[in-house]
Amino acid sequence: MPSSRPGPNRARARTITEQFRAFDAHNPHVYRALERMTARRLAAGATRVGLKNLFEDLRRQLPHGVAGLNNSFSALYARQLLAAHPEWATAVELRRRRAA
């Protein structure tokens, strides 16, 4: 009977958090852009800022999009923004994470 556990030669799939950390380390401009966009929207009077919407705006603004910008990273970027800017807590919605 085959085992459901990966064998010694099969690599373990990276978690969303691991993928995010690798992406963020190689693309620090993405966080800085999201931070600027959030600050601008709040300064313009927005009371809520959705990271998925910011992702789409960022993809349109950059000439060739952002290769590897996974929509699953939005919750992690939201948490990173709030860690740096706790005053944005009422404007940036956090949802419970389902995956690691």
Please describe what this structure looks like.
The chain is an all-alpha fold and 100 residues long. It is 49% helix and 0% strand. The chain has 4 helices and no strands. Helix 2 crosses helix 3 (51-61). The longest helix has 16 residues, at 28-43. The two termini are 30 Å apart. The relative contact order is 0.18.
User: Beta-strand level of the residues, as a percent range?
Assistant: under 5%
Distance from N terminus to C terminus (CA atoms, Å) equals 30 Å
Characterize the main sheet: none
| Overall shape | globular
DSSP summary: helix tally: 4
Structural class, from secondary structure content?
A: mainly alpha
Proportion in helices: 40-55%
What is the averaged pLDDT score?
85
* Low-confidence parts: none
Total beta strand runs: 0
C-alpha Rg, in Å? 17 Å
What tags apply to this protein structure?
100 residues; globular; 0% strand; mainly alpha
Concise overview:
The protein is an all-alpha fold and 100 residues long.
Topology readout:
Elements lengths: L15 H11 L1 H16 L7 H11 L12 H11 L16
Helix pairs in contact: 2-3
